[in-house]
């Protein structure tokens, strides 16, 4: 059978290639040259207007993609000529000019027999056989979508990119929790012969290329020779974002040679950065939700414990009141003195019950933001007198020493605080010390710190640092950081014998902070005593003496 040959614009030069169909086209799909040799179809009327792809738009998108990426693609496609639909297997290759620019493609192909199946496939813009970079992108994307663990996402990303692109290092930098302008290397792929940079922190404002990559939201390639501490000869940076906010940077290092990262490699990392940015954001959100869920469960558990403890604590004094009053009403007292003792016990139980209710109401007010404070100039000396009266008899009954050490000043120490609230804090702290101390004693100290501060737009000259120390049962080191949490008790079984709801420290912390101070707790461990330290703003700076401080002791 004779073969029909069609040539266009010097297409005869392609005959030496041995291919059935060969032509060149520009980005608009215009034929620049054409050669076709066929044993089947009559091509006498064939020209660039009559030989066109069945779905031209998707075909043009494929040509333009090859031109942009400079990567050949293999695909199957249907071309139309007169009344015929002609299926072809094609290889579309970029024609790279001497200056590196690509403006056209070389298409080589052969005719296929089965056109019915192909006509359905040919409407897709995707290549029949994706190029290796596309396959790699799909593979990595699938991996990172299988997990919501932030650490796993980061490590899979750097390992996959680093190995695929044969880079010396691949780093994933993420903003630190404390400062969004400081980036830390959270995941790393690194060849063994090079130094690890894991956990290294950098300030991205110190690197112009990094700033430019973040501002432009595009890949940045540079030679880091002007950074003497960097051992890389070529660097590729690609930032990752989620909802317009930077959440990471993928950084590739080539340390053994200068490297020109081609457009396909840049596009791969750029596309992957979009996937990674979203995956990291989702993982971060999941982590926060998981933490919040665990905190909610813990809060629910603590509230249940608190309610159980509180119900017991409320019933105990209430039962005491009812029991002693019942004894009086039933004339069970042997004489007036015993009757008076029953009434006193009922009264003390009522006071205890009132204190418990006040604690519960106070914490509810504080958490609801309904607690009112009257900040004014008050006397620390007067507060100490009140505490002395409160603790004197209780310390004596338990054979404990009780010392109050005042800073040595010529004038009275005046604080900027709410008198009743500060007294409440001191009563809570001293009350805890008295409750949990069985031998030794309690000491209260004050230290003037002349450092200017601002509270509610009021400039104040300094603070009084107050510490309440005791030799009581102490607290284990691993439990101290949670002592100021609402509804938290160190060990219900160990402290239950001492009574109380465990709200004293939580209330004290909130009261101190509301008055512009800070509070902390420290203990060397169980049975090694405790020290609670807090600050209160000074209304004025007292004139200090050089001799020993004043003492109030028992």
Give a structural overview:
The protein is α+β, with helices and mostly antiparallel strands. About 40% of the residues lie in helices and about 25% in strands. The protein contains eleven helices and 23 strands. The protein has helices at about 55-70, 115-120, 130-145, 150-165, 210-215, 265-330, 335-370, 380-395, 420-435, 490-495, 505-515, and strands at about 5-10, 20-25, 30-40, 50-55, 75-80, 85-95, 100-110, 170-175, 180-190, 200-205, 220, 235-240, 245-255, 375-380, 400-405, 415, 440-450, 455, 460, 465-470, 520, 530-535, 550-554. Strands 1-3-2-7-6-5-4 form a seven-stranded antiparallel sheet, with helices on both faces. Helix 4 (about 150-165) runs antiparallel to helix 6, helix 7 crosses helix 11 (about 505-515) and helix 8 packs parallel to helix 9 (about 420-435). The radius of gyration is 40 Å and the shape is elongated. The termini are far apart. Mean pLDDT is about 85; it is low at about 115-125.
Rounded mean pLDDT is 84
> What distance separates the N and C termini?
125 Å
Number of helices: 11
Total beta-strand segments = 23
Form type: elongated
**What is the strand arrangement across the widest sheet?**
1-3-2-7-6-5-4
């Amino acid at each position: 059978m004779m073969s029909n040959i069609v040539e266009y614009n010097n297409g005869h030069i392609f005959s030496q290639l041995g291919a059935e169909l060969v032509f060149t086209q520009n980005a608009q799909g215009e034929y620049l040259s054409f050669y076709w040799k066929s044993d089947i179809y009559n091509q006498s009327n064939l020209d660039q207007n009559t030989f066109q792809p069945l779905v031209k738009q998707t075909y043009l998108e494929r040509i333009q993609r090859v031109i942009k990426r400079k990567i050949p693609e293999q695909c199957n496609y249907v071309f139309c000529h007169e009344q015929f639909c002609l299926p072809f297997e094609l290889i579309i290759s970029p024609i790279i000019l001497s200056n590196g620019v690509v403006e056209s493609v070389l298409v080589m192909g052969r005719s296929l027999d089965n056109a019915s199946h192909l006509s359905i496939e040919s409407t897709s813009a995707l290549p029949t056989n994706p190029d290796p970079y596309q396959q790699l992108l799909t593979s990595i994307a699938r991996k990172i979508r299988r997990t919501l663990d932030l650490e796993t996402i980061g490590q899979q990303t750097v390992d996959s990119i680093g190995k695929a692109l044969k880079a010396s290092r691949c780093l994933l930098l993420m903003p630190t929790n404390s400062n969004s302008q400081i980036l830390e290397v959270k995941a790393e792929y690194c060849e063994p012969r090079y130094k690890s940079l894991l956990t290294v922190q950098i300030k991205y404002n110190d690197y112009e290329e990094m700033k430019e990559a973040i501002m432009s939201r595009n890949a940045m390639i540079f030679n880091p020779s002007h950074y003497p501490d960097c051992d890389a000869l070529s660097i590729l940076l690609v930032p990752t974002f989620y909802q317009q906010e930077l959440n990471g940077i993928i950084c590739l290092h080539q340390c053994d040679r200068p490297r020109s990262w081609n457009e396909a490699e840049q596009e791969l990392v750029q596309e992957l950065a979009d996937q990674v940015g979203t995956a990291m954001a989702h993982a971060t959100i999941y982590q926060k939700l998981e933490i919040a869920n665990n905190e909610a469960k813990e809060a629910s558990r603590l509230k249940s414990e608190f309610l159980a403890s509180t119900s017991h604590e409320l019933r105990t004094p209430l039962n005491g009141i009812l029991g002693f009053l019942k004894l009086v009403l039933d004339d069970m007292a042997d004489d007036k003195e015993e009757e008076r003792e029953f009434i006193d016990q009922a009264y003390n139980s009522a006071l205890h019950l009132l204190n418990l209710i006040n604690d519960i109401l106070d914490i509810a007010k504080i958490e609801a933001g309904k607690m009112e404070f009257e900040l004014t100039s008050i006397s620390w000396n007067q507060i100490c007198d009140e505490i002395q009266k409160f603790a004197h008899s209780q310390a004596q009954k338990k054979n404990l020493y009780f010392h109050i050490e005042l800073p040595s000043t010529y004038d009275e120490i005046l604080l900027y605080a709410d008198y009743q609230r500060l007294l409440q804090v001191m009563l809570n702290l001293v009350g805890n010390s008295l409750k949990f101390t069985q031998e030794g004693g309690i000491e209260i100290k004050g230290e003037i710190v002349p450092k200017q501060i601002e509270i509610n737009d009021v400039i104040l000259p300094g603070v009084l640092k107050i510490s309440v120390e005791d030799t009581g049962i102490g607290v284990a080191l691993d439990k101290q950081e949670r002592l100021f949490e609402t509804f938290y008790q160190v060990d219900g079984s160990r402290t239950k014998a001492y009574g109380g709801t465990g709200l004293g420290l939580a209330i004290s912390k909130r009261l101190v902070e509301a008055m512009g101070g800070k509070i902390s707790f420290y203990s060397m461990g169980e049975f090694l005593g405790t020290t609670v330290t807090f600050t209160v703003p000074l209304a004025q700076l007292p004139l200090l003496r050089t001799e020993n401080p004043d003492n109030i002791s028992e």
